[in-house]
Design brief:
Elements: E1 38-40, E2 49-52, E3 55-58, H1 64-93, H2 98-122, H3 132-142, H4 154-172, E4 175-178, E5 181-184, H5 185-194, H6 198-209, H7 215-232, H8 238-243, H9 250-283, E6 294-295, H10 311-314, H11 325-331, H12 336-349, H13 357-362, E7 378-381, E8 388-391, H14 398-417, H15 430-441, H16 446-451, H17 462-495, H18 503-515, E9 517-518, H19 544-563, H20 579-589, H21 597-605, H22 613-618, H23 620-629
Helix pairs in contact: 1-2, 1-3, 2-3, 2-4, 4-7, 5-6, 9-17, 9-23, 12-14, 14-15, 15-19, 17-18, 17-19, 19-20, 20-21
Length: 637
């Protein structure tokens, strides 16, 4: 199979803000007009009163009409602020300058101020007679984490917005320089992905990680201000707010992620054991200990999050049938537009709509030569009215083919819920949003590639199958612990369990615990800030969504395959051209976040629980083969 890269999706749980969200422009109802409500506590007894259009109303049971008017007004006012923020963010991401950074910070500050005030007011509606739709909107407001909740103090709020824009700008402009010669992240990633020279890999890895040193004091300040804002709306810290956005308690959600990790950990450990042995053969046991941690710079990815680029070093059956999709794309003279149109054609084959004409006019598909941009792939609905776009610096290769499908999965989700009220314009939970395009990409099977003319023949023997599953596992299975530990680190930072002087020590302790990897050299505190070298940390994008998505995509894939009438092994299924599967997918997409995620899950899969069983089923041939290869080895670390 092909492999999706983790791509940026700049929306925090349950409310569209910075980018990647959609919404239809609507007339503002009369009930929404007037000045925004504000919460006051004149009596000093903690019982808030609200001044709404010049009328003070104390919130109490029986306030159904007031609650309904409140959420309707919020929907209209939020739309205007969110569009302004989204436009500013698009401009900043596609042209990083001091001016665009300031404009984005200013727009986000206004949005932060509105959300902080609005969330506080939402908590005052507690009446039992509130209708289910209004109650759902109030709940989503209360667990909104994007933008991060701002402190009430205007100077602190302004500083929080400035920090967010500045950190993302530093990351986007980051380069590793020797004298006048500088390499940006793309060039350094090419080295990490292709070189087999230990010292060259080390130089590229350390060069990129140096860019994060500047971020450390900014991030520490950011954490303090974001936590202050979270506490003002009733949470212990920002991490607790993040964990509250999954229709379960924060504590239950943390247990749920551990449960899912327990399901998949045995398969990861088997893959790690096999790969470690192959890398020891390549670089020597003095550099890759037979029973220890793998050095992070040897796994073909700047963050060791996915290992597909080292496939030639670990290929199960060299010379057996394998797919050179990158070569096929280049032979067929694909360019950036043609690659995206290929992705669109899969979605339309199952009955989904074509992308709007504005998508092709407004997307950024190539890296501009005249300005600095954030190349990290992301999907957008800038104007919240089906203004779909993607932002990528596309390379014509196998990885970006699947990244295109991943991003279009976001776009199609926006497209099918953009007519809902703004507060419902999000995925059932954020893992759903990340899983849609990846589930579609699982249908990019060898049979599909042959059907569209990219390859001439489908590998038919078991050796070819194991080779293909190894390629896929180096992306999907290798990623799982990384996907989980990013937020585990941040939850500990936000809660104070990890103090600022322990940022790097705690980072590498978690990477050792979950991933079984180590830094290639000493990385002491406070000299380094290696977490900041990963985009989602300075950009403040929660990451557990990607862990959930890697599991959910297989659960979704299995359900879609069943709808399509597939029989046979799960890894052979492609829903290309199967409109029955598309109908089921559209029904789930159209719900947005209007229902708790278990209901959306049931609409597509028939069950209300997340489960990794389909992932394990998919990789059953490879797991059996790994068991054979690892016999006699001491796995683990």
């Amino acid at each position: 199979m092909l492999r999706p890269r983790v791509a940026a999706f700049l929306v925090l749980p349950l409310l569209p803000v910075i980018a990647c969200q959609g919404g239809a422009e609507q007339q503002q109802p009369a009930a929404q007009k007037g000045k925004p409500a504000r919460v006051v506590d004149r009596k000093g007894d903690g019982k808030a009163e609200t001044k709404l259009e010049g009328k003070e109303v104390e919130k109490a049971p029986g306030q159904a009409a007031e609650a309904r008017a409140f959420v309707e007004r919020v929907d209209g006012e939020l739309r205007a602020l969110a569009v302004a923020s989204s436009k500013a963010e698009w401009d900043k991401n596609t042209n990083i300058t001091d001016a665009t950074e300031k404009a984005a910070a200013d727009a986000n500050e206004k949005l932060m101020e509105f959300m902080a005030r609005t969330i506080k007011e939402a908590t005052t509606f507690t009446g039992g007679d509130i209708d289910p739709e209004t109650a759902r909107k109030l709940h989503l407001l209360k667990v909104t984490a994007s933008p991060p909740p701002a402190p009430g103090d205007p100077d602190k709020r302004k500083r929080l917005a400035e920090l967010g824009a500045k950190m993302e700008g530093i990351y986007g402009k980051g380069k590793a320089c020797e004298g006048a010669k500088c390499k940006d992240l793309g060039a350094l990633e090419d080295i990490i992905g292709t070189s087999r020279k230990y010292d060259e890999l080390l130089k590229a890895w350390t060069g990129w990680h140096k860019i994060a040193v500047e971020l450390r004091p900014l991030y520490q300040e950011f954490v303090g201000l974001a936590n202050e804002g979270a506490k003002e709306i009733g949470y212990k810290d920002l991490g607790e707010l993040w964990r509250a956005g999954y229709d379960m308690s924060p504590a239950d959600f943390e247990q749920e992620t551990e449960r899912l990790w327990t399901q998949v950990q045995p398969l990861y450990d088997k893959l790690h054991c096999y790969v470690r042995g192959k890398l020891a053969d390549k670089y020597g046991k003095d550099k890759v200990p037979a029973e220890g941690l793998i050095p992070a710079h040897l796994l073909g990815n700047m963050w060791a999050q996915e290992w597909a680029n080292i496939y030639p070093l670990v290929e199960p059956f060299p010379g057996a049938a394998s797919l050179d999709v990158t070569g096929a794309l280049k032979k067929a003279k694909y360019d950036e537009v043609k690659l995206v149109k290929l992705g669109e054609s899969f979605f339309t084959s199952v009955g989904l709509d074509p992308l709007p004409a504005t998508f092709w006019e407004r997307s950024m598909l190539q890296k501009p030569k005249d300005r600095e941009v954030v190349c990290h792939a992301s999907a957008w609905d800038v104007d919240f009215n089906d203004d779909l776009r993607i932002k990528m610096c596309i390379k014509i290769n196998q990885e970006d083919l699947v990244t295109v499908h991943h991003e279009l999965g976001h776009n199609y989700y926006y497209h099918y819920y953009y007519k809902l009220p703004l507060l419902f314009q999000n995925g059932a939970h954020d893992g759903f949003h990340e899983a849609i395009g990846d589930a579609i990409a699982l249908s990019i099977t060898p049979a599909y590639l042959k059907q569209i003319g990219l390859i001439d023949a489908v590998p038919a023997d078991d050796k070819g199958l194991i080779n293909l599953q190894m390629q896929d596992a180096l992306e999907k299975i290798a990623f799982l612990p990384f996907g989980k530990l990013i937020d585990q680190w941040r939850w500990d930072v936000f809660s104070g369990k990890t103090a600022p002087e322990q940022y790097n020590e705690a980072w590498w302790a978690l990477r050792a615990k979950y991933q079984g990897i180590a830094p290639p050299e000493g990385r002491p505190d406070p000299e380094f800030f290696d977490a900041g070298a990963k985009y989602h940390i300075p950009a403040n994008v929660p990451y557990t969504r990607y862990f959930l998505a890697r599991i959910l995509q297989f659960q979704f894939h299995k359900a879609l395959c069943e709808a399509a009438g597939h029989t046979g092994p799960l890894h052979e299924c492609s829903i290309y051209g199967k409109t029955a599967a598309g109908d089921k997918l559209k029904a789930m997409l159209a719900l947005g976040s209007s229902k708790p995620w278990p209901e959306a899950m049931a609409a597509l899969t028939g069950t209300k629980q997340m489960d990794a069983g389909a992932m394990i089923e998919y990789f059953a041939p490879l797991e059996k083969w790994l068991d054979e290869q690892n016999q006699g080895k001491k796995c683990g670390w």
